[in-house]
């Protein structure tokens, strides 16, 4: 009597940025048919992303500090992982990210070539080659960098040529909100604003522009509400947008309407923020992790690009509209504008976003 061969098990070592984590989800979908169990090792800042992937069995949070080796902690975690996995797929390119799979003696350790990891990574892959084929038909990569989506898909069982990746369909990131996550109470059409960007101010549309958009949404009619989301660092930015939007609405003699704008930045977990995004009518966001999450939840999103490249990290969704002025100085990939103007973002007028609002019934 024949015995069925047990499928191998896999451990994913996750990146440390929310946007990168979202862009790694198509890789997990590609791996899923080949492995009986896929678990993820992730820092708390991105763990919620993988809890929104039906293909992930379990997420183990690891309290690593940015820039620190923490050898003892890594060794302790590795000892608990021994004999549990047949393969580890290391998504970050750093040397320290490959230490746990090596210390855990996981037989196959797959990752990109980089940082002299030859002893730690024994299934080494080359980054995708630069291509003239953009990941979206409406935006090209001015920096000639292949998309991060293509980068992660190189770590699949059978790496795909960049031109063969269906970034807007089969291979685009998809997220499903866990049933246990509480969702906002039913209300009218909700606009979610994501004004932050972890990388720096050169990726942030001005607060006064966000405020004008918020006021315009509320003016559309009864029941239209605005929710501002972000982390603790965006709390004051959210307060500024809230105050300016309320001031604009009061100037219209619409005092009660000003109560329909709320700032939840810094007051939700990432998973709770996903709940607000997944149940919104529209998301307006800088190039950020929440932008990628909105696209993965299949929510209409307006993505605002300044110092970064909309061809390298676009919002992978047919419901996403990307706005980029494509100035001669961009993308510069700087945290702050080298020219001191941030013209690539200040030049995007609020009206350019407002005209993308969904049409009201009867219009």
Structure at a glance:
By secondary structure, the protein is α/β, with parallel strands linked by helices. The protein is built from twelve helices and twelve strands. The protein is globular.
Q: Please, could you describe this protein's structure?
A:
By secondary structure, the protein is of the alpha/beta class. The protein has 2 domains: 9-164, Rossmann fold, CATH 3.40.50; 190-354, 3-Layer(aba) Sandwich (Rossmann fold), CATH 3.40.50.2000. It contains 12 helices and 12 strands. The protein has helices at 18-23, 25-31, 44-50, 71-81, 99-103, 148-153, 207-219, 235-251, 270-278, 289-296, 343-346, 350-354, and strands spanning 9-13, 37-42, 58-61, 87-90, 108-112, 123-125, 190-194, 225-228, 261-263, 282-286, 301-305, 320-324. A 6-stranded parallel sheet has the order 3-2-1-4-5-6. Helix 7 crosses helix 8 (235-251). The longest helix has 17 residues, at 235-251. The mean pLDDT is 89.
